[in-house]
Design a protein that fits this description.
Layout (H helix, E strand, L loop, with lengths): L10 H8 L3 H5 L5 H24 L5 H18 L1 H7 L9 H27 L9 H21 L6 H16 L2
Helix pairs in contact: 3-4, 3-6, 4-5, 4-6, 4-8, 6-7, 7-8
């Protein structure tokens, strides 16, 4: 997927890459859409666990935010094929199941970001000039753009370095 994108994901190409027969893949997946949904569900579960562990590594909201995104950037650096799936424009737009799976990943991010932002605002660390939801949208949108730029650049720069710089900039904007 990192070489040819979602368009290059076919049962035939996957079977060849994995050295399986096409029929072996069809025993587990009915279609390309099923494969993508399985990847997205795996990503949702993995990120949920990763974020859970990351937040426990820090005591203060800023550090929790940094750890959460550091873990995310490290995961994607090691697994760029997931970035291809999540950050592909027009990915199976007509597929309600794919859209739901991507939405579920957003909900996982919000589940972990909400308490961090609320804690930071309650402690007077993060601005109260914007609502928690507005801050989360600002953060998620900015990080999503950075991830999309990385994918479009064919993973040609270090997402951990660039992502951390982006997060530093976000913290400058939202910290009192």
């Amino acid at each position: 997927m990192t070489e040819s994108g979602v368009g290059g994901l076919t049962i035939k190409n996957l079977a060849k890459e994995m050295r399986f027969s096409e029929s072996a893949i069809y025993r587990h997946f009915k279609s390309k859409e099923d494969i993508i949904i399985a990847m997205l569900k795996y990503l949702e579960k993995t990120l949920d666990e990763l974020y859970e562990r990351a937040v426990k590594l820090a005591d203060v909201p800023e550090e929790k935010l940094i750890q959460l995104f550091l873990q995310k950037f490290n995961f994607f650096r090691i697994n760029p094929h997931f970035a291809v799936v999540v950050f592909s424009d027009g990915l199976m737009e007509s597929s309600e199941a794919v859209n739901k799976a991507i939405h579920d990943i957003f909900k996982v991010k919000q589940k972990h970001l909400n308490p961090i932002i609320e804690e930071g605002q309650a402690m007077g660390v993060f601005t109260n000039e914007l609502s928690g939801d507005q801050l989360i949208h600002l953060i998620m949108g900015s990080v999503r753009l950075q991830m999309l730029k990385w994918r479009i650049a064919h993973f040609d720069f270090d997402i951990v370095v660039a992502g951390n710089q982006q997060l530093t900039n976000i913290l400058k904007l939202i910290t009192k």
